[in-house]
Amino acid sequence: MDLLKLTALELGEKIKAKEVTVREAVDAVIGQIKEAESEIHSFVTIDEEGAYAQAEEIQKKIDMGELTGTLAGVPVAVKDNMCIEGQLTTCSSKILSNFKPTYTAEAVENLRKAGAVIIGKTNMDEFAMGSTTETSYYGLTRNPHNTAHVPGGSSGGSCAAVAASECYYALGSDTGGSIRQPSSFCGVVGLKPTYGTVSRYGLIAYGSSLDQIGPVAKDVSDCAAILEAIASHDPKDSTSMDRDDCDFTEALVDDVKGLRIGIPRDYMGEGLDPEVNDAVMKAAKVLEEKGAIVEAFDLRLVKYAIPAYYTIADAEASSNLERFDGVKYGYRTKDYDGLHNMYKKTRSEGFGPEVKRRIMLGSFVLSSGYYDAYYLKALRTKALIKKEFDRAFRNYDIILGPAAPTTAPELGKSLSDPMKMYLGDIYTISVNLAGLPGMSVPVGKDSKGLPIGMQLIGNVFEEKTLIRAAYTYECATKKMHETPASVGLMSEKEVR
To answer: Exposure pattern of 243-282 as b/e (b: 16+ CB <10 Å)?
Structure first.
């Protein structure tokens, strides 16, 4: 039995049935990490000793009947911006290279309660600022499908680890597409929940009004089960929502009859790679053949999403990263002359170029004389974008489109042009601005063999609708993303 080919739920069932031990599951991923990690570099830290200790403890609880959940004993990786008590948590930055938190993120605690075995912390763009996982202080991560290409970002380490079978699933965070875009590039399923569904307590903040933790997994069923495990109301997070509809696995139903799906014409036009377009339209056709009603429509204001997003996100980042000054924790420069010189040298040495760029942009838009012209205008634009989505959801249950305009670019090509990297978030960032749930599902590969992802967007608290549509597509196509099925394209006339 090749344990690495199993999904998280399949492995959980085998552990529950005593066909596989938790230690054997950990052996499988640790072996794969040792084989693949030198080339992929998905992890910042690997806690091999801790993983085996967890495996022993969890196995005892399973045997005693204390742990009966579907994910008990299944190894997981956690993005390195989520705190774990006593374990190095760096945000892939030099400035936190020695930081060990005194508490654990609520989402990670929820996984522990479910019996998950935490293998280690995954690589990411520094402080989640980037779309390629190339801005990490600890070195870049490579795409398992083609190591000359990026895995996406900022949750590139989590997505690459799942794609390379170095773990069965992972946690990522999504500020402007940081789960969905790398999931698309790596050929895995990634879900960004409605803002407030998963506690942000213990998540080191980038943009507080935009950040959301979510699952990355091999298939839709795993994603639903993981979200069910990590979603909870948390009084320690003032933005946490108290929901009574978190039984997400109930939405794993192969049925989309009558589901209204809208495809924005704005998403399928200029700048979209033709191969991505074709794959997404084929996927839409599959759902249409399963009984969904698929229509094209105009989603206005999309062109304003990028400037609004980067204004708001950078403003919040400049405030959130103010605490990293070398005083209480983290890196401190060795030679300095006075307090202000220590601040300046610590930050100059501790932060990378992309983080410095965003802090400066954020400080600028919040400065006197520019606050009204930029930051307040961006907040008004954010409100208008939310209204535009509200209008769309009066007519449609789901919005369907690409997760990214292209497949994974080659290493080194995005960082040379920051504006090009920012524009790569065109399809994902408006979801965060509006606080909506979004999901990336593999729908094929391009001529280079690189994965293509379809993005499904739902109204607030409608994760179940997304899961149902994604699961129906998955059931209809099975391994379509490995061997693309020959389904008819929607005509150009239908889109326009």
So the answer is: eeebebbebbeeebeebebbbbebbbeeebeebbbbbbbb
Give the full edge-to-edge strand order of the sheet including 117-122: 43-46, 117-122, 75-79, 169-174, 212-217, 189-192, 438-445, 451-458, 398-402, 260-264, 293-297
DSSP 143: B
Is 159 in contact with 220 (CB distance < 8 Å)?
no
Catalytic residues, which ones? Answer: 79, 154, 178
| pLDDT for res 486 | 31
Q: Extract the tokens encoding 370.
A: 């520019």
Q: C-alpha distances in angstroms, 334 versus 62, 90, 224, 234, 325? A: 49, 19, 47, 39, 13
Nearest to 212 by CA among 204, 200, 224: 200
> Where does the pLDDT of residue 414 fall: very low under 50, low under 70, confident under 90, or very high at 90 and above?
confident
Distances (CA, A) of 489 to 189, 472, 486: 23, 18, 9
Q: Using CA of residue 344, residue 348, residue 351, residue 356, what is the dihedral sign?
A: positive
The lowest-confidence range among 13-22, 154-163, 300-309, 329-338 is 300-309
Q: Is 172 helix (H, G, I), strand (E, B) or coil?
A: strand
Q: How far apart are CA 117 and CA 395, in angstroms?
A: 43
- Sign of the Cα pseudo-torsion (247, 248, 253, 256, in order): positive
- Non-local CB neighbours of 363 within 8 Å, separated by 6+ positions: 318
Beta bridge partners of 263: 296
| pLDDT tops 80 at residue 70 | yes
Confidence of residue 188 (pLDDT cuts 50, 70, 90): very high
**Whole-model pTM over 0.90:** yes
User: Where are the alpha helices (H) located in 70-117, listed in sequence order?
Assistant: 106-113
CB 77 within 8 A of CB 43: yes
Q: What are phi and psi of 204, to 5 degrees?
A: -70, 120
Q: What is the dihedral of CA 338, 340, 342, 347, to 10 degrees?
A: -170
Residue with tokens 């070398």, as numbered in its chain: 326
Residue 233 to residue 98: CA distance in whole angstroms: 31
Q: Return the DSSP state at 461.
A: T
Task: Reduce the DSSP state of residue 457 to 3 states and report it.
Answer: strand
Instruction: For residue 211, give the 3-state DSSP assignment.
Output: coil
* pLDDT band per the 50, 70, 90 thresholds, residue 418: confident
